[in-house]
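Lab notebook, bench 4. Still working through the backlog of constructs that have no structural model yet. Next entry is a single chain of 530 residues. Request: give me the C-alpha cells for it.
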Amino acid sequence: MSLEDPDETQVGRPSAGRATDARHRSRRGLVVAAVVLVLFGSSGSVWWIASQARTPEQRAANAAAPPPSQITGKVSDQQLVERMELTGKVETASRTTITGGRPQGADRAVVTALPAAAGKSLKAGAVVAEVSGRPVLLLPGRFPAYRDLKAGDKGPDVQQLQRALQPLYGTAVNGTYGPATVEAVRKLYVAAGYEAPAGQGPSTTGGGGSTSGTARTGGAAAGGGTAPRGGAETDGGTGAAPGGDGGNGTKGSSGSGGTGGASAPPARGVDAPPAAGPAKPGEVLPAAEVAYVGTLPATVVQVTAAVGDAADKPLLVLGSGGRQVRAALSADQRTRLRDLPADAVIRFGTGPYEGREGTLGSLNSPSDGKNGDQQGKSGGQDGAATAGTAGAGAEGPGAGNGSGNGSGSEGGRHEALFVPTGAEAKEGSTQQIAVELRRSPKGSLTVPVSAVWTDLGGSSTVTVTEGGKERNIPVEVLFTHEGLSAVHALDENLAAGQTVVLVRRGNPADSGSGGGSGDGSGGASGGTDG
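Model written out:
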C-alpha cells in the first residue's frame, strides 16, 4: 500500500513535463541558429573565392594601360582684359582745415559764432567763423596769411590779397597795399557785416610787421544802420552791407566806434601808398581774420568746433576743387596701379558716376608722408592742408589745374585717388571703380591656360589636334588671367576656332609633327605670365 498522497502525485507530474519540453525547445533553437551561421559563412567564402578567380586573359586586360584620351579646348580671338575692381568714396578734391587765432586786442580766442553749417557752399568773402567777435573771412589763395597786412606793405601776400579782391571790387594787382586795396578791404568787411580794422597811417618800412590800433567794435552798418553779423555770403561785389548802401565806413581805435565818410580816391594813383593822415577803415588786414582756400566756391565738409570753444584749434573743414573718389588699396594693388599704362581705361561702375570714365589722380602709401605719387593727367590734389594760426587754409600747388601735389594716406593705408568726369556727386557716396590693367593687343589669340606647354628651356607651344593628328605650334605668352592666356602665335597656322589639347593620357594615336606624349598633367605647361 502506497503512502503517497494521490492528489499531490497527480498535480506534480504535469509541471515536470512542461519544464522538460521547454529545455528541448531551447536546445533545438540553438542548433538551428548554428546551422544558419555555418551556411552564411560557407556562402560568403564561396563568393569571395569565386570573385578572385580570373583567367590569364582577364588579368592581362586589367593590367594594361587605359586607351589614350584627351581633354581639348578652343582657340579664341577675343581680347583678354585684366581688370582691378575697387570700391571708393566720393569726396572733394581739396580739403582745408580752418583753425582760429586770437584777434588783436582780444584777451582770449573764443568761438562766438559758426554761421557756416555742414553742406553749405561758400563764396569769396563769406564768414566761415567768428572768433572773439571778429570774423574769419574766406578768400581764394595759394598760401596761408603769414602776417598782418597794413597800408604801405608790399610782397606776394599783398598780391594774393589783391587777386582775391579783384573779381569783387576791381582791385589792381600791383603788390602794394595802397588806397585802392584799403577801400576794397573796407568793402569786404562791410559786406560781411563787420567793422573794418583801421590802422595809424601808412607803414614806413615797406615790409610789414605788427599793427597797432586795430578796431574791434563791429556791427555799425553803412549809412548808420546795424549790419547783420556773421553773414555767409557776399553782396556780389558792390561792397554794401546787407540792408545798407555802403556809403560810410566806421573807424576806430581799440574799440572806438566813430562814424566817418568813405575814403576819397588817392591823388597819387593806385600804385602809391596812402599819404600820412588819420587812420582809415581797411588800412589793416589781420592774419587772424582771413582764411585762404585754393578753389572757390567751397563746401563745408565738417564743423569740428562749437560756440564757446577755444578757437586755437580746428574749427571746420572745407572741401573745394571738384570731386574725387578715394579707394583703399593693398600693397600689390598699389604697385600694379603705379605701373599703369598711359592708355589704360578707368571706368566707374555702381555709384553716382556709373558708366563714366575717369583718370588716376594720385597714389598714396604709409611711407609717402605728404608726397603722393602723381599719376595720369588729372591733377588730383589730395588736400588735407591745415591752416596756420591766422585760420588761413593752404592750397597745394596746382589744385584744380592738373599738377596737384597729393598727400599722405590716412591711417597708414595705401590709397588711390580717382578723378571722375561729369557733374559733382554727393560727398560720401559709395562708388565702384574698374581699372583696366592690361589688354591683349589686336591680332593676339586666347587659349585656356592648360593648353600652353612650356619646356625646360622656356619655349612655349600649343598642341593643335585635327582629324586625329596633332602638331605643336610655338607661341609667345603675353599674359595670363583667370584661367586664360593671351598668346601671340609664332606660326601663322594657329587660328581662332581650332581645337587644342589641354590634358591627355597615354600616347596619342598619331603625332603629326613631333608632338610628344603627355603624362596627364600637361607637362611643364601653362601659367607663364608674360
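Notes after review: Residues 25 and 31 are 10 Å apart (CA to CA). The longest strand covers residues 81-99. Flag for follow-up if needed.
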